[in-house]
Amino acid sequence: MKMLTVVLVAVLALTLRSADSTFAETATPISHVIVIVQENHSFDNYFGTYPTANGTLVNNITSQLQTVDGIPNGTCVPYGKGCLSPYHANVSSMESPAEGQVTYENDYDNGKMDGFATYSGPQSMAYFDYTQIAAYWVYAEEYGLSDNYFSPVLSTTNPNRLILLAGDTPVSQNYGPPPYLPYNLTILNQLSTHGISWGYFDFLTPGQPLVPPINYLSGLNTTTLNQVQDVQAFLHDLIQGNNLPSVSFVNAIGSDGLDEHPPANITVGEAWVVSLVDAVMESSYWNSSAIFLTYDEGGGYYDHVPLQQLLSIDHEFDHALHGYGQRVPLLVISPYAKENYVSRTLLNHMSLLRFIDYNWNLQPLNQNVANSNNLLDFFYFSGPPRSPITLGDNREYSAKTYPAPIQIALSSLPYTRNGTTIGVRNTETPLTQTIAPIVAVSLILAIIVIGSRSRRTRSI
Q1: Shared-domain flag, residues 22 and 36
Q2: In the prediction, which pLDDT does 421 show?
Q3: Are residues 118 and 23 in the same domain?
Q4: Does 194 lie in the same domain as 92?
Q5: What is the DSSP string of 337-404?
């Protein structure tokens, strides 16, 4: 009896431990998440005319692709004594729209969506297409794109990037630090606490201060600071094939024009992102990876979708933060990403945290994260991982040519490519969190029953 009890207790401990992510077990085949965050482009600015560029590129491929909630026909917003319609930018570098929390609120004008040209400037009505960002349109064609993804709050870079790390922000605009955000409130600390490796990669200059949003974090020790590295370390980890963190945040802040923030040449930033994606695809990590490519905020560029009034953050700010903010692109690139899938699920930057927590069997970081939808609908895990599609200049798939050949015949896909709209919240539970308590209770009951039977046997 004593031996049986010991065995059952050991099994119970292992069962409970399997529900704890200290083992770094994942709820999906994805064990490496890579989050790439670029700067200041709205969804309409990059994908408002996808997939046919306003009907100017219709062929046997583009005619089969999923459409998106793009720029409506006939759009014209007030400007001066008349109005200004969205227009195609025939250049790859433009003057930046005017930015700022109050400016953005005036752009959206309480849901009327008519202040962009007046407040952020006429350049805010420009949009790009495959003639400038062919690679991004190829990624949308071959993998997953969301047309219902928003920055968390209607404001500038720093609060939105801080929310991506913590589901909260101590600043409402690009000022500070101080105030600071305690490291122990971030997803980085949550991962470390549960034995899950992470890396934050940026363009670092030796001897110079850290760049936002990492410079807002207080309570960083030497071990944590060693996980904040230059982007070259990320590429080195991919090449070596034995040291890539489970979760990587990759950014171009501090670079020389690679973050796509206007007036930078967006084709240069896109080429840098393609080099990162190609490096992942050519590494030993591809079959276990998911790449999330998004933009911190819309930068004042026009987007026609009204804001979702779902979030408010106010830490004695002069002007409270409201969310969600501007609609921005999200591309999901993975061997498990559905091909040419358009997700309609309501998402924001905290949905990435929600997925990370879900995937490593963690509780949501905080209530703001818990209230954000997961993005599991992008993935299909019932089939084998797809082969990578690298975008070299002299290959079948090119970073400069859209559309690209379809990898899997669209008529043969075992899933629909048109995502179903999901509301404010979905509440999936990782399988280990569901099963572990049941198994644990069953084992405890078994111990009690066996123990009582043993006592009865001895008494007889």
Answers
A1: no
A2: 60
A3: no
A4: yes
A5: BPTTEEE-S-EEHHHHHHHHHHHTT---SSHHHHTSPP-GGGB--SSPPPPP----TTSSS-TT-SSP
Same domain, residue pair 355 and 452: no
Task: Please indicate, yes or no, whether residues 167 and 71 belong to a single structural domain of this protein.
Answer: yes
Split into its structural domains, the chain has a count of 2
Structure tokens at 213: 């949003």
13 and 96 share a domain?
Answer: no
What's the pLDDT score for residue 394?
64
Domain span at 458: 1-27+432-460
Structure tokens at 331: 């591309």
With a cut of 90, say whether residue 24 has pLDDT above it. no
Question: Which of 161, 195, 172, 204 minimizes the C-alpha distance to 348?
Answer: 161
| Structure token digits, residue 417 | 């490519």
pTM listed for this prediction: 0.88
Same domain, 19 and 85: no
Which of 123-132, 288-297, 418-427 is the least confident region?
418-427
Question: Can you spell out the DSSP letters for 57-111?
Answer: S-STTGGGSPP-S-PPTT--EEETTEEE--EE-SSS--PPPP--HHHHHHHHGGG
> Among 89-98, 205-214, 234-243, 342-351, which stretch is predicted with the lowest mean pLDDT?
205-214
Q: How much is the pLDDT for 23?
A: 43
What is the total residue count of the chain? 460
| CB of 203 closer than 8 Å to CB of 350 | no
* CB atoms inside a 10 Å sphere around CB 284: 12
